[in-house]
Amino acid sequence: MLRSIWNSVSAMNAQQDKLNSISNNLANVSTVGYKSEDVNFQDLMYETLNRDGYPVNENSPTALITGSGSKTTEWVRDTSQGSLTETNKKSNLAIDGQGFFRVTTPSGQTAYERAGNFNVDSSGRLVDDDGNVVNIESVQVSGNLNNNNFTINRQGYVYIREGNQDRLYGKINIYNVVGQDSMTSIGDNLYTPKQGTQIYQNNDASIYQGYLEQSNVDTGKEMTDMIVSQRAFELGAKALSTSDDMWGMINSMRR
């Protein structure tokens, strides 16, 4: 009976993690550039019952082992492309393909983000809503950006308008990492690479000016998964309740 209780508790803990990931995804369904998360399940230790003095059916091999429940493994982020929505705002950028924008936080930390809902600040820098500055490499000419004087092509080259001429200002590179789960979320839609992760410049991705990438959360799938997880959680709770009733019966008999 103790094993049954342990199995129920571990299964409920695993389903709670699953429900947490679903709740987080649904809460960010409208967050620009958000990538959904999921959890995988793994069996805990198995124990053989094939030993002296233990009643088992020798003709049924599966009856010779018993499990000790399940647990969730590390959360996995789905990096698939979200849909692109046109905004016609010059400072809005969307990545078509794999990769991230590189930004510098106000504290000087290098981070990466997928969301491209940028603005031009009072200093003429391209920043996100939290003040993180988009890295523009190889600046060729002096001058500050404003909301109307620059264009960015699909390769990330930034051109600034001076009079009747467009002059190359710099380039926004797209960076990617080796391994799907090589980035760690640090909040506010920002990521940092895990230790030892290889970062490279992805020249196969394109940048769309005047567009935003929406989250890749599939609401229908999340709602279905939530119903399944809730039913599994309720089953575990019912098993605990039944075990508690059985212990109560045993204690009453002993008196």
TrEMBL record:
Q: What is the lineage of its organism?
A: Bacteria, Bacillati, Bacillota, Clostridia, Eubacteriales
| Principal place of residence | other
- Identify the InterPro entries for this entry: Flag_bb_rod_N (IPR001444), Flagellar_basal_body_rod_CS (IPR019776), Flagellar_FlgE/F/G (IPR020013), Flg_bb/hook_C_dom (IPR010930), FlgE/F/G-like (IPR037925), LlgE_F_G-like_D1 (IPR053967)
Flagellar basal-body/hook protein C-terminal domain location is: 209-253
Q: Which UniProt keywords apply?
A: Bacterial flagellum, Cell projection, Cilium, Flagellum
Lineage: superkingdom: Bacteria
Task: Please state what the protein is called.
Answer: Flagellar basal-body rod protein FlgG
Where does this protein reside within or beyond the cell?
Bacterial flagellum basal body
Q: Which residues form the Flagellar hook protein FlgE/F/G-like D1 domain?
A: 94-159
Q: Which PROSITE patterns match?
A: FLAGELLA_BB_ROD
